[in-house]
Design brief:
Radius of gyration: 31 Å
Strand content: 15-25%
Largest sheet: 8 strands, mixed
Shape: elongated
Number of helices: 18
Structural class: alpha/beta
Strand order of the largest sheet: 5-4-3-6-13-8-14-11
Helix content: 25-40%
Distance between the termini: 59 Å
């Protein structure tokens, strides 16, 4: 019989283990009886992780990618780097070399092969094309990386694509803590693309499922078993089943051949593999047909991923994607980290502009510096040259000031939903826009974009904004073009003839963002709105003669504002009523008077409630060209294009 001897050095004495029952020399009842004897500052080392990086033509994203990689909260002496880069037509290798000069000593080891002798694979039409030769090259490297991880006794291997931005610093800590054989962090993109599938057809095609959106939108939160993961994959090398994992088609077929009867019992996908030479599909099938579960975690927002491009796309398209992701990072996390000086010098720099307009104003209250700072971070990400325009603060308005400004309220006006007069915040909001219109006329600015400070830019904002303005200039005269609004009537909004993304506008709320012409500003001022004041998002529909309240409309005889809207919209609110962080400086403010007014917290609900908001895009019956076309996707279609 074994005995357990514990030497109690801390107390300077020795003694036999007592299991709590007065019996010496027997197995302890539980490990918890021993744990309290261990020093708090002496714990197990974290598992060792080998990070496998395969980089090709990613100079535009590498400074940010490497910045996030460095920021991972994981002991670097427990991380080995395995890096391969070749077939580049940009300076990816130069950036990697410069980065390694500074970080190499920090990591346990670095195994690198950086080869700049060739720029393209055989039969490759562009850097986004995937001929068979490129697949074979990538597959060989992934197999080599897995073998190397086993040889150096790494506990885990983490395959990480260079177009993945791990904004969550705890990513490696969390993934390794799960203790799963294979797991991936769920990544967000500019759309619904991510690094996992929830369904796969028997022919290895992507299968759309309701569960995909549930996971992606975090309607359900946790760790989910899925049939496919890619782009950021952590494999437990110590797990016995990892020996069955492969990226190689021939290896998979050999494995299936050795146990075909067993594999066939797992489903039609586990027949003798007859699918493409594709590392992602082969890896998924090798796991699924060996009963090795693949998991995706959405427990925290781990980061972002760029979508793969078509062979006909250009590097500029990838840069635009990165710009979209940066704006999402600012929206979601408040800022994009500043790269270290030796990486920052490689970041692509572009001069700021005004989107071909005369000017861009951003309205913001002086007492909301956090919004102002965030907006200018967004402008930096979008390369926009914007002027801060201090808003009129409703909190500083008094009846005396209102009288001095010569303001009279529209007789009989009350909020159509809450049956109350205007708030001081709504007055301040109107005056802010009014002063900008005055500024436009005084400076004779022909086209101006007016932005508020609580907006979220849609992907490709720059490109789409310029396209909308080019279309409308070419076909029709205009006074105002909405970039962001809230439709209030479920009516068909006809397309403007000979345009692809401009519609005739119906009754709408919100002034999130709009382009106004000099002529439009003159019309809005000429109507003398301060003599019959109403909220600005009621005034504009009256002026383009789409307001349902004809009594109010009749107070403004010349209702000839030529108004249109981008479709789909280019801007949305950052928050809706009820969202965490929602603040309204217009509706949550003092009323002009207090007679018989509802002061309940719901007073702002209907104007900013997304449940009452119709689709910003025109209804599909207005133009069938926008009906979505269902598509089947293969793994090649979702290939992470930074690989080889």
């Amino acid at each position: 019989m074994r005995t357990f001897l514990w030497v109690l050095l801390a107390t300077g004495c020795c003694g036999l283990w007592n299991n709590g029952n007065g019996v010496h020399g027997k197995t302890p009842a539980s490990i918890e009886n021993v744990a309290h004897l261990l020093p708090d500052d002496l714990k197990d080392y974290p598992p060792t992780v080998m990070v496998a990086l395969m980089v090709r033509n990613k100079a535009h994203i590498l400074p940010l990618f490497l910045t996030y990689l460095e920021q991972l909260e994981y002991p670097k002496k427990r991380i080995s780097l395995w890096i391969r880069s070749d077939h580049n037509s940009d300076n990816s290798i130069e950036i990697l070399t410069e980065w390694l000069k500074h970080v190499d000593p920090l990591y346990h080891s670095v195994n690198k092969v950086l080869n700049d002798t060739q720029q393209r694979h055989q039969n490759e039409s562009s850097q986004f094309d995937w001929p068979t030769s490129r697949f074979h090259h990538l597959i060989n490297m992934k197999e080599e990386a897995l073998l190397y991880a086993q040889q150096i006794w790494a506990d885990y291997i983490f395959y990480l694509d260079a177009d993945v931005l791990l904004t969550e610093a705890r990513t490696l800590k969390l993934l390794t803590s799960y203790g799963l054989p294979v797991v991936a962090p769920m990544l967000l993109s500019e759309g619904l693309y991510s690094n996992f599938w929830c369904g796969m057809t028997p022919d290895y095609y992507y299968l759309r499922t309701d569960m995909y959106k549930e996971i992606y939108n975090v309607n359900q939160e946790g760790i989910f078993q899925v049939p496919m993961i890619h782009s950021a994959v952590l494999i437990n090398v110590n797990y016995n089943g990892s020996a069955y994992l492969t990226f190689d088609r021939d290896n998979l077929r050999q494995q299936l051949n050795n146990g075909l009867e067993y594999a066939a019992s797992l489903g039609e996908q586990c027949r003798m593999y007859d699918g493409p030479v594709d590392d992602i599909i082969v890896f998924a099938i090798s796991a699924n047909c060996s009963k090795i579960p693949l998991f995706i975690s959405n427990e925290v927002p781990f980061g972002y991923i760029l979508q793969p491009l078509d062979a006909s796309d250009t590097p500029e398209q990838d840069y635009k994607q990165l710009q979209n992701i940066k704006t999402n990072i600012v929206h979601d996390l408040n800022q994009v980290p500043v790269a270290k000086e030796y990486l920052a010098k490689y970041e692509k720099k572009q001069e700021k502009d005004k989107l071909g307009l005369d000017h861009i104003y951003m309205i913001n209250l002086e007492r909301r510096p956090e919004r102002r700072e965030k907006m200018f971070k967004l402008f930096d990400a979008l390369n926009l040259d914007v002027e801060y325009f201090p808003a009129v603060d409703g909190k500083k308005l008094t009846p005396e000031i209102i009288q001095e400004l010569g303001i009279n309220f529209l007789p009989g006006y009350e909020d159509p939903y809450h049956h109350r007069p205007m708030t001081m915040g709504e007055i301040g909001c109107f005056l802010s826009h009014y002063h900008i219109w005055q500024n436009i006329v005084e400076k004779q600015q022909k086209e101006v974009l007016v932005l508020e400070d609580d907006i979220r830019f849609e992907p490709y904002f720059r490109h789409n904004a310029m396209a909308v303005m080019e279309q409308i200039r070419n076909v029709i005269d205009y006074d105002l073009v909405y970039f962001g609004r809230k439709r209030l009537k479920d009516t068909v909004e006809p397309w403007v003839e000979n345009t692809e993304s401009v519609v005739h506008v119906s009754y709408s709320y919100w002034t999130l963002g709009y382009v106004i012409s000099l002529k439009g500003a003159e019309k809005l001022l000429k109507a003398k709105p301060l003599e019959n004041l109403i909220p600005v998002d009621e005034y504009l529909p009256i002026m383009f003669d789409r307001h349902p309240n004809k009594t109010w409309s009749n107070a403004f005889p010349e209702r000839d504002l030529l108004a249109y809207s981008a479709a789909p919209l280019l801007l949305y609110p950052t928050h809706y009523t009820g969202d965490h962080g929602y603040i309204s400086d217009t509706e949550d403010s003092f009323l002009v008077d207090s007679h018989e007014t509802d002061h309940s917290p719901s007073a702002a609900q209907l104007k900013s409630d997304p449940e009452r908001m119709f689709l910003a895009e025109p209804r599909f019956d207005a133009n069938p060209k926008d009906l979505p076309v269902p598509q089947l996707e293969t793994a090649a279609d979702i290939k992470s294009h930074d690989e080889f």
